[in-house]
Each structure stands twice: as C-alpha cells, then as structure tokens.
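pinned: reference chain
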Amino acid sequence: MLTPISERRLLQSAVSVLALVPIVAGFLGLAKGIQVFDAHAAVSRSGDSHIRYLSGLMLATGLGYWTTVPGIEAQRTRFRLLTALVVTGGFGRLYAVALFGLPASSMVVGLIMELVVAPSLALWRERIEQRCAASAQSSTPILSSR
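pinned: its structure tokens
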C-alpha cells in the first residue's frame, strides 16, 4: 500500500499529465477551429466561432485542473466544480452518440475521459483528502514535502 504522501504525488502526477489533453486540444481548437477535430467538416462563421469558444473552455478547464495540483488534497471545491463541468459535457457527447452513433476514435477517447477518468480522479482526490485528514488527526506529518 502506498503511503499517503506517495499516493498524493501519484495523483498530482496523473492530474498534471491528463490535464494536458484538454489544454492541447483546446489550444489547437482555438488556433485551427473545427479542422483540428474533423478535417472534412465545413462550418459557418457562427459555427466556427462556437467551436473556438468551446475550445477556449476546454483549454481553461485543463488549466483549471493544473491549478489544483499544488495542495491537491485541499482543492475540494475547485476540483469538484471542474469535474462537474467535464461530466456535464460528457453527457452531452453521450447524447450525441445516442442520436448519431459513435464518432471518431479521438471523440470516444474524450467521452471516456469525461465520464470515466475525470470522475475517477475526483474520487481519488477525495480519498487523498480523507487520508490527509486522518493523518493530521493522528499527528503524523504527511505533507512535509510537496
């Protein structure tokens, strides 16, 4: 079994790496529009504007997750909010699957990130918070090094 500090560091590493997905996808969507996600799609100016707006939200969400990494055990509210936003988007994507069938594999990966990975990370973060609180109550310092 991992020590609380080792488990905390592992979670921090996982969040740091996995947050790169929305950061990179969001940045590319801002820069190149729909062509990043579907090279054959044609979109109106309004559609392009909306894609770039949503890409900005995706970028901001990834950056938001990065802000939770230091002191992740104390980031309950922010982490839950970010995860709720991601899961809500995942339900939208799942609805599209019900309407139109499976999209490209990259979108399926996004769906898995939104409905499986993000909630799993949130539950893991809750576990870390509880372990840190229990350790603090027993006066065992686990947060001495970040």
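why pinned: The two ends are 20 Å apart (CA to CA). Helices lie at 4-18, 20-32, 45-68, 76-100, 105-137.
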